[in-house]
# Entry
Amino acid sequence: MRFLAVLTLILAIAAGSVSAAAPATITVVIKQPVQRVTIKLVPDYALVLTFDRPIAAVGIGDDSLVATAVRETDLVMKALRPSGRTNLLVWAGDVRTVWEIVVNRSERTADIIQVITQTPTAPPPAPTPPPQESSVRPPAGPPPFQPVPDGTTVSSPSRAYRVTPAPEQR
# Structure
């Protein structure tokens, strides 16, 4: 009889350590299209969903299974019965998230789930600098011209020039 009591005590301690072994915090990134995320709750433990924007509304399928409370960006949940399943919908800003809640006595997801609903946007490209003016400016007056063979007349806005070919050198 004493052996049975010790075995029961060991099993009770082991079951308690399984549910206590959940990580303190995990992060969930919500992507589009929305996917259902499973959360495991254990009676006598609370779980907090912490969103990156304020929570607008919450809908739960079976409110006799899980109690919820909202405070700005946090949704606190606590199992009310030892086992069961339900769904949870949370609207954070303009993003809807879908969750499946499983209440059991042996496994829990975490104490805090950080929920990322906003995809990081790449920073805008750096503005291109305006083109710089050249420090070399053409001289004032008539524009420069190239000698044109055959005595062609080249004109500028103010004058006409006659270009005479250079004599051939021997």
